[in-house]
Amino acid sequence: MEDFWQTCAQTLEQELTPQQYSAWIRPLVPLAFDEAGAVLRVAAPNRFKMDWVRSNFSGRIETLAAEWFQRPVQVKFELDTPRMAPPPPRPASTAPSAPAGNGHGGGNGHVRTAPAPHAPAQAALGFPADPVAAVNSAAARAAQRAAESPRPAPPRAPKAEPSEATGIYERSRLNVELTFENFVTGKANQLARAAALQVAENPGTSYNPLFLYGGVGLGKTHLIHAIGNSMMAENPAARVRYIHAEQFVSDVVKSYQRKAFDDFKRYYHSLDLLLIDDIQFFSGKNRTQEEFFYAFEALVALRKQIIITSDTYPKELSGIDDRLISRFDSGLTCAIEPPELEMRVAILLKKAETEGVHLPEEVAFFIAKHLRSNVRELEGALRKVLAYAKFHGRSIVVDVCKDALKDLLSVSNGQITVENIQKTVADFYKIKVADMYSKRRPANIALPRQIAMYLAKELTQKSLPEIGELFGGRDHTTVLHAVRKISESRTKQAELNHSLHVLEQTLKG
Ligand SMILES: Nc1ncnc2c1ncn2[C@@H]1O[C@H](COP(=O)(O)OP(=O)(O)OP(=O)(O)O)[C@@H](O)[C@H]1O
Question: Which fold has domain 125-131+164-336?
Fold first, then answer.
């Protein structure tokens, strides 16, 4: 087994970057090989590394093991905390700023490296969802004392504990499962993915901020987690934070109530990568926007990366300060569109593979043809089919799929109906379907309603009076006006044209 592990580690060392090898493979320890069950047990120093290695490298290690042992081998990862040798004491001044080791030293693949300490941000990194807890924590108090001291002590490198990687990872709030490797690419997202990769490789220096926008369930969150995970894989000590905009709002409110803005600022201004999801939730929250503006300015000035997602492009965001909108627009803005048929099939096949299930292609095509609006919906359908087949002890074939998805299919049976259009447009613009029939006329409702009328005329066989009837009994001249207005505006307004394109794609599949 030792011989196998040495060969395996050497192969991976050649396949990975030195940083990846040092961070993920070198700390692993082979524990035992169970001949009877063909199970290889491997220990990882902490849960973060264990999860990461399991998600990203177990397949490759199993392939290498199968080649070596001449039969399929299962690799099981387990925690090995008690076996961890404490890291050798290091004088603070020689503490490295990246994982130790260049991938060539250490030889036997067992030397463990600790992530780099980062003294000034130590307390800040611990900034939890509740900022006051940070003030109450010993680390934060120590940092505060240091900050208040008339002659600040030189930054002391904290001892690199084995659990530090776990701590840093947990504080990042990243989901280790969302990676570039399991993000399926197609026309709908290739630009966004390319930009995300570029930013992950050159944080802070290529596109800052990177602004990703698109409809519900299209992979924005997945992609920004992938960037964070990739950055942490390269540099496990990086100070990365994923946060949903609503949580940021709540952090601001708590800091405000408890007068803890210094800690708030210290934390957010000290990050290497800030991933902020669904920024449209900042709408109308002036104090939040102000704090975010300061954090934005501070991070960009320090060439730290900011990545923002939203359901719409910057200029279309409502209730957001103009100075923020112009900053969102100052980097790179990329759309993620609904996936086309082939991509939906590829996503289903990939998801099934991840579940360890063989999904016949015709079943994947069947699901993909009928469910078109977003990837989350596809995932839900796949889960339903797999559970149904398992529960009824049947194999995964199209007929089983039809039974399992009966409810969903009756809603989206491939026909474009006015009801479908109303629902799709309402979802897209985040208004209630009821507003399609209502008499209310604020602009945020009137425009989507006109768009839905336009699409109803374009995509269905209904007459103008019939459409008017389905939109709350409106006159046919109202529908005609909407159709003319939208068809003319789409030739002049690129963003409107883009939205219509997305809606048409969603409806047509
Ligand atoms: N291209 C893709 N490849 C693989 N999985 C994907 C892809 N796009 C989306 N997914 C999966 O679909 C689900 C929904 O994606 P995600 O949460 O990233 O969407 P979102 O755009 O952030 O949606 P929302 O606006 O609702 O937050 C996730 O489980 C994600 O892993």
Answer: Rossmann fold (3.40.50)
Query: Does 508 count as an annotated binding residue?
Result: no
| Residue for token pair 């063909």 | 38
Determine whether the annotation assigns residue 284 to a binding site. Answer: no
Tens digit of each residue's pLDDT (9 = 90 or more) over 324-335? 999 999 999 998
Query: What residues form DSSP beta bridges with 418?
Result: none
Mean pLDDT of 240-268: 91
64 Cα–ligand 1 center, Å: 31
The per-residue pLDDT for 295 is: 95
Name which residue sits closest to atom 9 of ligand 1, judged by CA.
219
**pTM above threshold 0.80:** no
**β partners of residue 242:** 275
Closest to 217 in 3D by CA, of 113, 372, 439? 372
Annotated binding residue 220: yes
77-107 pLDDT per residue, tens: 988 755 433 333 333 333 333 333 333 333 3
State what percent of residues in the chain have pLDDT above 70.
81
User: What are the DSSP E strand ranges found in 20-170?
Assistant: 29-34, 39-44, 74-79
- The pLDDT value recorded for residue 168 is 53
Write down the domain spans for the chain. Answer: 2-82, 125-131+164-336, 341-411, 418-508
Residue of 174, 178, 197, 221 with the most ligand 1 atoms within 8 Å of its CB, for mutation: 221
Tell how far the Cα of 220 is from the centroid of ligand 1, in angstroms: 6
Q: Which of 185, 213, 246, 375 to mutate to test the pocket of ligand 1 (most atoms within 8 A of CB)?
A: 375
214 C-alpha vs ligand 1 centroid, how far in Å?
11
Instruction: Looking at the CA of residue 375, tell me the nearest atom of ligand 1.
Output: 12
Report whether CATH 3.50.50.60 matches the domain 418-508. no
| Cβ-based neighbours of 349, under 8 Å, separated by 6 or more | 359, 361, 364
- Whether the Cβ atoms of residue 271 and residue 302 lie closer than 8 Å to each other: no
Phi, psi of 380 (to 5 degrees): -60, -45
Distance 345 CA to ligand 1 centre (A): 15
